[in-house]
Amino acid sequence: MPPRELLRMVLELIADEIEDPAVAASLREFVAGGYAFFALSTYTATQAAEIMKVIREKLPAAAWEWFPDSESAREVVAELVEMVEEAEAAPPGLTKRPDFRRGASG
To answer: Are 6 and 73 in contact (CB under 8 A)?
Structure first.
């Protein structure tokens, strides 16, 4: 599980980049509420796929901008990206929505 502030930054980035306004609004509400646990299982498969696409395509560059001197923060982001890539590569019939707890899927 990433540190709470990093999770909030990731979700804010996704809210800014995602095309589904309802998902963006729910992510902003999540961040505003100060929650510390996030699971893609609360979203439809299509919405989760769009969230994972933003993580895979936009998050690595953002992490370098946010944390130019923090290898540990960038490692957490790299792990999130890896979890997304593993979920996307999962065989049909397996869940494709990680809940961002190491080794768990939602």
So the answer is: yes
Q: Write the CA distances from 26 to 23, 35, 43, integer angstroms.
A: 5, 12, 10
Only one residue has tokens 């999130």, namely: 80
CA 76 to chain centroid: 11
- Taking 3-state DSSP, the helix, strand and coil percentages for the chain, each rounded to the nearest 5, stand at 65, 0, 30
CA distance 77 to 93: 27
Residue 55, burial from CB neighbour count under 10 angstroms (0-12, 13-18, 19+): buried
Alpha carbon distance 57, 13 (integer Å): 11
- The CA distance from 48 to 41, in Å, is 8
Residues 2-53 have pLDDT tens digits of 678 888 899 999 999 999 999 999 999 999 987 767 888 889 989 999 999 9
User: 3-class DSSP state for residue 96?
Assistant: coil
Q: For residue 93, what is the enclosing H or E element? A: none
